[in-house]
Amino acid sequence: HPAAYIAESAKLGTGIIAAPFAFVGARASIADHCLLNVHSSVGHEAVLGAYCVLSPYADINGGGLIEDSVFMGAHACIMPRLKVGRQSKIASGAVAYNDIPSQTTALGNPAACRSK
Q: What is the rounded distance in angstroms from the CA atom of residue 27 to the CA atom of residue 48?
């Protein structure tokens, strides 16, 4: 969308949808077929794997590593330099202060993980 901000140094895969006011910071990398909903953000030097969905206002802070097929609910937040494993879900409003293992659901603030 023309109202999305994508830094010139960001690397984008194919099939990405960036909704109005989505933000992609400097040297961020987004793999194929990701959805960045309204007001979502991918911080500087963060890496977003393939087939991820960021709901409205979801934030990945600088240096974060989000593996493939991760879903982040509205207002979910990943603090800087954390890793979220593949096929995980970050619930709406959850704030991750620690790494999130693969195939788990993270709920609350601070986010607590539960296996699928």
A: 12
